[in-house]
Design brief:
Length: 175
């Protein structure tokens, strides 16, 4: 049988040795990259990492625990502990960057503030004084599933409208 003048050959074209070696190298690099990514995920590096930042001033010591690294849809711990030697004389005012809190889908707050308002870019909570020297507040939330970027926030203790002690922190969102 002879070859038809109108037939199209289906044999693959020989790419040549240099091109085949380059293609093999690219495949190997891709496999290594995939293994590294899966390894980072399995080790928790790409998951939620919580850390704390502290400051003191005006007789108060403020420690904020926050998600330094998180991912969309994951539970992310945030809260603060405020200590004042000798206890608290009256209501306690704490303000936090409102836009940062908006990154999260709130499940609850404990204890509930006795009052809440917005002052510029800050959400301001007022708490009744606790028994003892320490107020511990926990914000139960998860990062919103559509959030793709992190943000820097500030939390401060106020007397009247003046910040007495303040901390800043940044949350990074991983894909």
């Amino acid at each position: 049988m002879g070859r038809d003048a109108h037939s199209i050959p289906t044999d693959p074209e020989d790419p040549g040795l240099p091109r085949a070696r380059r293609a093999r190298l690219v495949r190997r690099f891709g496999v290594v990259l995939l293994v590294v990514f899966v390894g980072l995920g399995a080790s928790g590096v790409l998951g939620v990492r919580t850390t704390s930042v502290s400051a003191s001033g005006g007789g108060y010591e403020l420690t904020v625990t926050y998600p330094a690294v998180t991912r969309p849809g994951l539970a992310s711990r945030w809260g603060f502990e405020l200590t004042r030697a000798g206890g608290f004389d009256g209501p306690i005012t704490v303000a936090t960057t409102h836009a940062w809190l908006d990154l999260f889908d709130e499940n609850g707050r404990n204890p509930a503030p006795s009052a809440e308002t917005v002052d510029g870019d800050m959400l301001v909570w007022e708490f009744d004084p606790p028994e003892g020297d320490t107020l511990t507040f926990v914000f139960d939330a998860r990062l919103g599933p559509s959030e793709q970027s992190g943000m820097t926030a500030r939390t401060e203790v106020r007397e009247d409208t003046a910040a007495i002690v303040s901390v800043s922190y940044t949350t990074t969102v991983m894909p």
